[in-house]
Specification:
Number of helices: 6
Number of domains: 1
Strand order of the largest sheet: 3-4-5-6
CATH topology: Rossmann fold
Largest sheet: 4 strands, parallel
Number of strands: 6
Helix content: 40-55%
Strand content: 5-15%
Amino acid sequence: MNLALHYNRSRREALSLAERLRSAHGVRAEVFQADLRDVPAIRRLVSRIAREMGGLWALINNASLYAKTPFATVSIKDWDDHMDTNVRAPFFIAQAAAPHLRRVGGRIVNIVDWSALRPYASFMPYCVSKAALLCLNAALAKELAPKVTVNAVLPGPVLLPESMPASQRRAVREATLLKRLGSPEEVAKAVVFFLETSDFSTGAALTVDGGRLIA
């Protein structure tokens, strides 16, 4: 499928990715800029994508803010930034995209996080925002049925912070039932499952976490 890639500040990286996709897969890949904390900008973004790409069939809500915020130091800005990026933006993107998706029986996939179900310390605004996104996933599934399916992928330990010490990385790996970290490709396969294979799933949440949630 042809791809519309959104970025906020990472223009160079977005252009590089688009070129790699074109070269490797022979698809059309275009980049579009918007600050997703700006709701009018979201509406302009979706309208421009639908116009320039000739329509819209699938939406992947993948943009996310992930910042360490120890409980005693959480500020109003910390809270609002996580909520605006991780919950409010996916809602208004879906709202703007809904007319286009309904016309073609489209798909929405929300990238959540296993911590939406099992929060961890020092990331409270992030975990709460992802729990809200999981609720939004179900609410959108009800609102957009029967024309549009809406599902969620909940990654576990996949891309760890580069600054994380080796000992902590080993501990994270050993905490999974499969005793390894996941890969971005494994998360992508779960997204493709909801896009291409699962015609009878909506409101579902698929963990890709090596069993970390139940460990």
